[in-house]
Amino acid sequence: MLVALSGGPDSTALLLGLLEAGVPVKAAHFDHALRPGSEAEAAKVADFCLNLGVELVSARRREALARGSLQAAARAARYRFFETALAGSRLATMALGHTADDLVEGVVLHLLRGAGLAGMRGMPERRGPIVRPLLGVWHEEVEAFLAARGAESLRDPSNGDRRFARVRVRLDLLPRLESDRPGLTRHLHAAARRAARLQAVLETEAGRLLGEGARQADLEVLEDASPALRAEAFRRLHAVASGRAPGLDRRQLRALDRLVREGRPGDSLDLPGSIRVRRGYHSLDMTRAQPSPGPAAILRTRPCAGCADPAAAHLRPGARLRLGTRRPGLRMRPLPAGRTRKLQDILVDAHVPRHLRDQLPLVFADGDLAWVPGVAIDARWAVSGGGPSIHAEMVGVARPLLESSHQLKEFFS
């Protein structure tokens, strides 16, 4: 496997331990270029790998870090490098040297922010191709392992910088808690491992509930699920739609829960990663937000002596037809009953989502609403029985519009 090798004690012990266990390894080192001397450290890592006969892939950051948290931006840059290094190495797995101490620190940070089960778990042992074999090993055991082998490692000065919340947890908060309640750190670690097992069960159930790669969920199924399973389903839907995980905090999960239990068709929320979630009549959909385009179709007409094209409307000869969109006060007499109804009511009954109603192309005949493609034809303008008519059809769409509401999704996809 590919080992993320910073040169620090944990990653150095991980590399040596895997070699001793007979696991073939390559190493990957990323120089964040955040402090003087980092290039010299990268050279020491290269010498270390050369002496062990381990192939090394390395890179130095060149582009500017994203704004905001320095540690978060550096971590994002590091993981981008890991993805590239793993793909180039032609290996399936990458091992990171996080230890039990790192796990507990992460759990405490999550709890301080108000975490649920996924946060209580801390970092997972496996996510995709990433594995963390040392989450059950304490840092003091790592140091003893290295000392027994006379192995030296680099020391990152940022690990003592109290500007960072994780460092304050490590150097201040946890020691004070431990002095007041000896053994608390171990108890937190054990609780995190139990939470990880429960979280694994939830993830499995969410996978069965949604299916692989889903960006849509049945509302009835979500409503019947437990709150914990529903939240995990939201996370999974968002991860697929945005291409990243994790991405939702407690406030966003609560808003999604309200949308499912109390929302109306057409209600929507904006989520991180430019994702928009909409509540339909029967499903919850997550898609990448796009500017709302106008109707993509155009109206094409021709004289017709009578045909059976199901994608066309056959309207009275001599009518002046034009294409438009919804405006207040529109009414029509939809076949077959021919009873005058508000367009709003017709669209609601056809389960046209609210956010699509203003985009839906409408066909007017001499100023009257005559045809709502995919939904209804006005009885006053429709020609039936194969007589002379205007053959009207929508073009410029991937598939023809049919006189049934389920075709609307195809038109707007």
What do you see in this structure?
By secondary structure, this protein is an alpha+beta fold. The chain has 3 domains: 2-184, 3-Layer(aba) Sandwich (Rossmann fold); 211-288, Uridine Diphospho-n-acetylenolpyruvylglucosamine Reductase, domain 3, CATH 3.30.465.60; 298-412, no CATH class. It is built from 14 helices and 19 strands. The protein has a 6-stranded mixed sheet, with helices on both faces. It has a 4-stranded antiparallel sheet with strand order 7-10-9-8. Strand 2 (26-31), helix 2 and strand 3 form a beta-alpha-beta unit. Helix 10 packs across helix 11. The protein starts with a strand and ends with a helix. The model is unreliable at 398-413 (pLDDT under 50).
What does the secondary structure layout of this molecule look like, with pairings?
Layout: E1 2-4, H1 9-20, E2 26-31, H2 38-52, E3 56-60, H3 70-89, E4 94-95, H4 100-113, H5 117-121, E5 126-127, E6 130-131, H6 139-149, H7 165-180, H8 184-210, E7 216-218, H9 219-224, H10 227-242, H11 250-262, E8 268-271, E9 275-279, E10 283-288, E11 298-304, E12 313-315, E13 321-324, E14 331-332, E15 341-342, H12 343-349, H13 354-357, E16 362-365, E17 368-372, E18 376-377, E19 389-395, H14 408-412
Parallel strand pairs: 1-2, 1-4, 2-3, 4-6
Antiparallel strand pairs: 5-6, 7-10, 8-9, 9-10, 11-19, 12-19, 13-16, 14-15, 16-17, 17-18
Helix pairs in contact: 1-6, 4-7, 4-8, 8-10, 10-11
